Amino acid sequence: MTLTLRTISREQHLAYIQSLPAASHMQVPAWADVKAEWRSESLGWFDTSGELVGAGLVLYRQVPRVKRYLAYLPEGPVINWFAPNLKDWLQPMLTHLKQQGAFTVKMGPPVIIRRWDAAAIKAGIQNQDVKRLRDVEATHIEPRAFEVADQLRRMGWQQGEEGGAGFADVQPRYVFQVPLADRSLEEVHKGFNQLWRRNIKKAEKAGVEVVQGGYDDLAEWQRLYEITAERDRFKPRPLSYFQRMWKALNTEDPNRMRLYFARHDGVNLSAATMLVVGGHVWYSYGASDNIGREVRPSNAMQWQMLQDAYKLGASVYDLRGISDSLDENDHLFGLIQFKVGTGGQAAEYLGEWDFPLNKLMQKAFDIAMSYRR
């Protein structure tokens, strides 16, 4: 297959994304405006008839003091990853990025390699000999994903020694998803474990109200988010980041980003952001106060968001990252413990891959990053 690659307009890029059943929210043109500190470019792949058959959002981060860049395609590019010869797709991209001054390329193929259903995960948690999700037999394996990985290695693409386990990659390799296609809401609710169903009912009886907010409510979101950051010991993003995200994404599509609050007696106790691209809906960021946990606001909010995703025609509700650890003593174990209660599936992506276009600069960059960490 002969393909040509060139820069495309944002309008072309968006039209292509809108023609697909779904794509990552990090591959829509507006994501470039969210990541305003990066230079950006939309790339398009064209077949011999001139039809646009693939697209990718590239973010360029300049290295200090030299005009060289890290080129990053988060959860992309959006191409035919199961094509028999990936080189036809990726080699033109590497050539173009090198011409743009990139010394290395990082990408995240949106290819799922394994899935584990809730029953398999629960069995793994109960088994004292099991410490990692990979130690549990997968419910479903995608053989074509292994072929993709083999092709990438033969081309010279590299993965870290950890293989992107947990949160080693920039984007999480392991995520938790609730499938919605060909299921009724009643079936989805029945898929919740007993604790989730009980907590949803408890919130309802207590009078917890779940409402949507707008741009002017982002300051209230930030209040809850910063409480969460202090409690869970992470560095919060500033309010300006979420304001920029709201404006950029909802200017591109008025239904791209939503904001939810769960409140009790007029007090907001939990909040979350939701992102929508086609049939894929993400629970993006979450926050909660240190008070009011006894009325289970987070469970009520997730159930409302899931119902709304269903009404939008979503095929999947994505609760985003989890660790691959099934060790109850691991500080990240709570993530999978909370999310598995939805009765969904853990999914493992191929992870992020790097291609050093300038090996000397790549080595110097890796050393600098290791010092920063």
Question: In a few lines, what is going on in this structure?
Answer:
The chain has about 375 residues and is of the alpha+beta class. It is built from 12 helices and 15 strands. About 0% of the residues have low confidence.
Task: Walk me through this protein's architecture.
- There is one protein chain.
- This protein is an alpha+beta fold and about 375 residues long.
- It has twelve helices and 15 strands.
- The chain has helices at about 10-20, 30-35, 85-100, 120-125, 145-155, 185-190, 195-205, 220-230, 240-250, 295-310, 335-340, 360-370; strands at about 5, 40-45, 50-60, 70-75, 100-105, 110-115, 140, 175-180, 210-215, 255-265, 265-275, 280-290, 315-320, 345-350, 355.
- The strands form two sheets. Strands 7-6-14-8-13-12-11-10-9 form a nine-stranded mixed beta sheet. A six-stranded mixed beta sheet has the order 1-2-3-4-5-15.
- Helix 7 packs across helix 10 (about 295-310).
- The chain starts with a strand and ends with a helix.
- The model is unreliable at about 165-170 (pLDDT under 50).
Features:
single chain, 373 residues, six-stranded mixed sheet
| Share of residues in strands | 25-35%
Please give the radius of gyration in angstroms: 21 Å
Count of helical stretches? 12
Shape: globular
Report how far apart the termini are: 42 Å
- Mean pLDDT, to the nearest integer, reads 94
Spans of at least 5 consecutive residues whose pLDDT stays below 50 are 163-168
The portion of residues assigned to helices is 25-40%
How many strand elements?
15
- Enumerate the strands of the largest sheet in spatial order, edge to edge or round the barrel: 7-6-14-8-13-12-11-10-9
